[in-house]
Amino acid sequence: VFTQPVANFDLSTRCVGDMVQFLDNTTIAGSSNITNWIWKIGANLLSSTSGASFVFTEPRNYQTSLRVETNNGCVDSLTRQFFIGPYPVASFTWKDICFGDSVSFTSTST
């Protein structure tokens, strides 16, 4: 009897235009090794290596799947949905004051 892998992954960043790295965090007990990976975004094959990367061009929800297989033929998969968003825009306002007075800043960031 061989140990079943537990597929898991994370993303390096979640902003439009960035190179998003998909990081395999699959765990497996015992002496088995992961020998096959299949990464998909929606129905499209992204990679068949232990890691994958992709540049997303529009902000929206995406579905990504990882399927792993061990050298003993045990398989597990995980599908996760995540949001790729635009970069935040930092902005703030303040009121004019005199030298030595305290100033208050108000965030208008989006």
Give an account of the 3D structure.
The protein is mostly beta strands and 110 residues long. It has no helices and 9 strands. It has strands at residues 9-11, 19-24, 34-41, 44-47, 52-55, 60-70, 75-84, 92-94, 105-107. The protein has a 4-stranded antiparallel sheet with strand order 4-3-6-7, with no helix packed on it. Strand 1 (9-11) and strand 2 form a beta hairpin. It is elongated and about 75 Å long. The N and C termini lie far apart (53 Å). The model has no long low-confidence stretch (mean pLDDT 91).
Write a compact overview of the structure shown.
This protein is 0% helix and 47% strand. The chain is mainly beta and 110 residues long.
Compute the average pLDDT.
Answer: 91
Order of helices and strands: EEEEEEEEE
> Radius of gyration, rounded?
22 Å
Largest sheet: 4 strands, antiparallel
Major sheet: arrangement of strands: 4-3-6-7
Number of strands: 9
Helix content: under 10%
- Measured between the Cα atoms of the first and last residue, the distance is 53 Å
